[in-house]
Amino acid sequence: MDKEIKKKLASNWFKLLQNIICEDIEKIENKKIKFKSKIWSRNKIKDEGGGEFRILKNGKIFEKVGVNFSEVHGKFSKEISKKIPGAKKKPNFWASGISIVMHMQNPYVPAIHFNTRFIYTTHGWFGGGMDVTPCINDPKEKKFLHYELKKMCDRHDKKYYKKYKKWCDEYFYLPHRKEARGVGGIFFDYKKENWEKDFKFVSDLGVTFQMLFNSIIKTKYKKKWTTKEKRLQYIKRGRYTEFNLLYDRGTKFGLQTGGNVEAILMSLPPIAEWN
């Protein structure tokens, strides 16, 4: 398949998923609050693509949720080229993806993160995943999350779940705290086994994420909570912030390649505490 067709198919899927997820979130909020949208360009002088970030704040269910889409192209700096597969000799790149972070009003509902992307240098690959960060642990919810992710992975390859769960556990870890960010999920990168197979997997993950966040939220959003539990949520958000600013590769990649700062930092919670 021609590389331009691959790029178009991946980008179109990410954009479609952005629309689907935003519609679901507005339905959960009974359409009483809408996303605010901002279109941005990577370069104001010449065409290097851009994207759209959508944000919804202070809903009844969602305290803050961002749903971002981007499709950009250009050249990596010399320093970044050395670290990116296929870019050492030729720094040209193209990248498209969707990134979603949900911070909830109710401390019993976990923060939920999802992203998938397709990057092309001299060759292309997929990356992404989803993970869940509760401030009040719920073994039943954790079991449900991993059961559904394993079921989805097994539809494509029986080896995926164990491999991608381990990668997620190792990636979403705060070394300075000696603790995991949350209860895990799956994470993968540099996925380039077979484009059609990989694209089906990435698309299936998007659909599974849609099912999972709807199910998790609708199960718990009416649960009563206390100010003490809300404070626990703020402290957990502090850990979330530490990880995203210190270790997250997507945050670093976006900032180093001229991405939209507001869109990149939308993952940060609206309120956090340190004690």
Structural features, described:
- With about 280 residues, the protein is α+β, with helices and mostly antiparallel strands.
- The chain has one domain: Coproporphyrinogen III oxidase, aerobic (oxygen-dependent coproporphyrinogen oxidase).
- The protein contains 8 helices and 9 strands.
- The protein has helices spanning about 5-30, 80, 140-155, 160-170, 195-220, 225-245, 250-255, 260-265; strands at about 35-40, 50-55, 60-75, 90-105, 110-120, 125-135, 175, 180, 185-190.
- The strands form 2 sheets. It has a 7-stranded antiparallel β-sheet with strand order 1-2-3-4-5-6-9. A two-stranded antiparallel ribbon has the order 7-8.
- It is globular and about 55 Å long.
- It starts with a helix and ends in an 11-residue tail after the last helix.
- The mean pLDDT is about 95.
Write the SSE topology.
Layout lengths: L2 H26 L7 E6 L7 E9 L4 E14 L2 H4 L10 E13 L6 E10 L3 E10 L5 H16 L5 H12 L1 E2 L4 E2 L4 E7 L3 H26 L6 H20 L2 H8 L4 H4 L11
Antiparallel strand pairs: 1-2, 2-3, 3-4, 4-5, 5-6, 6-9, 7-8
CATH homology superfamily name: Coproporphyrinogen III oxidase, aerobic
Number of strands: 9
Number of domains: 1
Q: What top-tier CATH class fits best?
A: Alpha Beta
Q: What gyration radius follows from the Cα positions, in whole Å? A: 18 Å
CATH topology: oxygen-dependent coproporphyrinogen oxidase
| Count, helices | 8
Please name the CATH architecture. 3-Layer(aba) Sandwich
Tell me the overall shape: globular
- Helix-strand pattern: HEEEHEEEHHEEEHHHH
Unreliably modeled segments: none
Q: Specify the structural class.
A: alpha+beta
On the 0 to 100 scale, the average pLDDT is 95
N/C terminus separation? 54 Å
Strand order of the largest sheet: 1-2-3-4-5-6-9
